[in-house]
Amino acid sequence: MGDQIKYDYINQLKSVVKKKTKRSSVKVTPTQVKKIGKKVHMDIVEEFKFRKCKQGTDERKGVWNKYRSHKFLNDKFYFEFIIYDNLKYSSTIHFYYYDPNPGNYGKKNNSISTSLRWDEWIEKLLYYLENNFSEWSMNMIDDKTQNLILNSLMFNQTCENLKNNWSSIEQGIKKEKIKRKKEFKNEVSNILDEFDSDKDGIIDFNQGKDDFMNLLKKHQVSIIEIDQNHITKFIQVSNYLKTKRENIQKQFEKIKTSKNNSQMNEYIGVLKNQIDTFNLLSYNSMIMIISLVEKDLITFNEIYLTFDKLNIFNSNWENEVSNKLENIGSKLDDLMFSINKMEISITNEILKMSLMNEFQMNRLNKTVSQGSMKINDSLKGLNSSLSSNLKIIGSKLNLNNLLTGINTYQLYTLNKNTKSLRS
What we know:
By secondary structure, the protein is an alpha+beta fold. The chain is built from 15 helices and six strands. It has helices at about 1-20, 30-45, 120-130, 145-155, 155-165, 165-195, 210-225, 230-255, 260-295, 295-310, 315-325, 330-350, 355-365, 375-390, 400-410; strands spanning about 50-60, 60-70, 70-75, 80-85, 90-100, 110-115. Strands 1, 2, 3, 4, 5 and 6 form a six-stranded antiparallel sheet that branches. Helix 8 runs antiparallel to helix 9.
């Protein structure tokens, strides 16, 4: 009885395959055909609860989502459907089969996956069902799977049927587009609120005092006594930090212009890296003042030479970034990649300093917490002095919170090849 059920199922699939598609008399444009196909695909995703497993970008078509069906048959040889939904254009469905035999198609890995065309996938499935008859049962192809396969086989006919009802479909597509835009707008708004809690349009990060300049003014007499040329260098550092603060604000405002989730996430990632770089530079700048005043010339010179190597005393790069961020015509994907590359370069160079070894180790330890952070012995005294000085100048900066943020931050990497910043 069990074998007969399997034979009947195979014959049912064959009869559906042989059945000719009845063409609709309603004429639709190629663009409308794509929209109808997209709807059928997404109906399958919703009805059979495909899971969204990935989001990516294509240089020509833009952002796409990837959805996977459940797997069926067995662990040795199984099938699944994958749907790629392009948010701007259309969507496609692929049928994958996995064969553990490493000899297949000359592949050396233990798992083979092949994307098949519509006229191939059913042939592959039928071939397996018929030639491995004893290895599977209808328990491996439950009602849900049977319906999924039949829905997929009837894709073309479903599209033809929907042509007769195009006007209502178009209205549904428009409603879905409006809904999606509204949801994305709310998501952007929530992200902005995270960075701007009082909703005044200025990122919270930029609403503190200029601690570096205030610290410099407090100690300028002592610094002049050591070498007045240091004042000029510190002013150049201050100018660099000011320009960087301005660029962080501009980057924050770029989030509002995001076209999609992928672009928004990359804007946020770059922004967080910029804040992290600023924190590293600001902290080391203040330590440089304290170390000079307290005559710790080893620490002072190590920071000074690193800053000199990074051209911190020259704000040309940050000024250039500032101009490009204001220029709407700039290529945003290239600009974001350049900014992020520079942030990572600055961060890595700073963390190479001997006094920052423990910071580097803390970052590598992704489970580090405030209580378990390693601290350079030579920095303990300087940190204590810095903390006292910050209180004297009326700073609201919590040094412990700043150090915790620096020690635990994980850099965001941006892959230039994704081109996901293209609108």
